[in-house]
Design goal:
Layout (H helix, E strand, L loop, with lengths): L1 E7 L6 H10 L7 E7 L15 E4 L8 H19 L5 E4 L6 H9 L3 E5 L9 H9 L8 E4 L2 H10 L6 E4 L6 H8 L11 E6 L4 H4 L2 H12 L4 E6 L5 H10 L6 E5 L5 H4 L4 E4 L8 H8 L4 E4 L4 H4 L4 E4 L3 H14 L9 H16 L9
Parallel strand pairs: 1-2, 1-4, 2-3, 4-5, 5-6, 6-7, 8-9, 8-11, 9-10, 11-12, 12-13
Helix pairs in contact: 2-3, 8-13
Length: about 375
């Protein structure tokens, strides 16, 4: 039986964590023994980890005297490496933004994959990205997995493949489970007006939720009847709430906070909105497709590939969003969903199998 080792930060509610759960649920545990290392064994999604997965915590010491802390963390790392060295057939680093996993993975398997969940070329300048990657021993990383063709191609412009293997494995979408969870009861009733939905981390630098609030002000001024539900939390939640208060939009933009299962809200709304400047592969977009909810989105991930009649693709500015929201309100029935979840997932299953079996090569799917 092959042994698979996967690293991640925690199991809080987020796109990366949901993607990881989906990957774990595709694995055939009669063929593979899986160990999941978490830097923090916390988060509501811990309950969604398959029982066959062995979960261990590796939590570095972060407080106390700097010298003593460094010594203790070094000894902890050495002890861990000695215990796990070359014990695994495949290692998958699911959270490349953390440093801890990089210090571990290069020692416990020669067959390592780093899963890039976002488009780092949109976050950093070339100099900043060089520094980011150097700290993570990029030269020693051979296999990189991207969740969209767009993010892979952007990365390849900066870092040609040469001796590295780049491949695409989009986020697996468990359609049956998504539909099942969408039917759970909630204590919110839809008002008699067109309702938009956004589910995301509240981080203005990437998500640009302020665009939704600015667009809502314009729609209010034109006396349109609508509401926007915002599900999520983050460093910029207070900024968004202050902006809503400033524009007197409390009756139009509703903050529902972080919700462990937001899927039932997809069924009581009329359109989903994504306003991000960059995304790796937005899971929420595909959840909307599966639940027949038309989407307004910026061109992030591989959105362009899937937008036939699934919604409206917009430019990354408020004016484009305003036009799309008005069009969605008046022509909603026009945007019927055409998304084949079975074909989409079969392609991903094949790619995942090639990765965890150790047979994946320099192939773009």
């Amino acid at each position: 039986m092959k042994k698979i080792f996967i690293t991640s930060k925690s199991m809080i509610i987020g796109g990366i964590e949901k993607s990881l759960i989906a990957v774990l649920n595709t694995i055939d545990y009669s063929k593979y023994e899986v160990t999941l290392l978490l830097e923090e064994r916390v988060g509501p999604l811990l309950n969604d980890i398959p029982s066959s997965v062995k979960v261990i915590e590796y939590k570095p010491k972060v407080n106390g005297n700097i010298l003593i802390r460094k010594i203790k963390n070094r000894l902890k790392l050495i002890s861990f490496i000695l215990k796990h060295k070359n014990r695994y057939d495949v290692v998958i680093n699911f959270t490349p933004y953390t440093l801890v996993s990089y210090k571990i993975i290069e020692h416990i398997s020669k067959n390592t994959y780093v899963w890039t969940q976002t488009d780092y070329t949109k976050i950093y300048t070339k100099e900043e990205l060089d520094n980011f990657l150097n700290k993570r021993n990029f030269k020693k990383i051979k296999n990189l997995v991207f969740v969209s063709n767009a993010s892979m191609k952007n990365f390849e412009v900066m870092y040609p493949r040469k001796e590295k293997n780049y491949l695409v494995c989009r986020n697996f979408m468990p359609a049956n489970n998504i539909i099942k969870k969408s039917k759970e009861s909630i204590n919110y009733k839809k008002d008699n007006c067109f309702t938009f939905l956004n589910v995301s981390r509240h981080e203005e630098d990437s998500k640009k939720i302020s665009r939704i609030i600015e667009a809502s002000l314009k729609l209010k001024q034109e006396n349109l009847k609508f509401k926007v539900l915002l599900i999520g939390n983050g460093v910029d939640t207070l900024y968004y709430k202050d902006l809503v208060k400033k524009y007197n939009l409390e009756e139009y933009v509703i903050f529902l906070g972080e919700i462990s299962n937001p899927l039932p809200y997809y069924l009581i709304t009329d359109s989903f909105i994504i306003t991000s400047d960059y995304e790796g592969g937005p899971i929420t977009m595909f959840e909307a497709f599966i639940l027949n909810l038309p989407v307004i989105t910026t061109d992030v991930g591989d959105a362009l590939i899937y937008f036939k009649q699934n919604g409206i693709l917009i430019e990354k500015n408020v004016d484009s969003l305003i036009k799309a929201m008005k069009k969605m309100i008046t022509e909603n029935k026009k945007y019927r969903i055409e998304f084949d979840a079975i074909s989409y997932n079969n392609e991903i299953k094949n790619t995942l199998e090639s990765i965890i079996s150790g047979d994946a090569w320099n192939t773009v799917l």
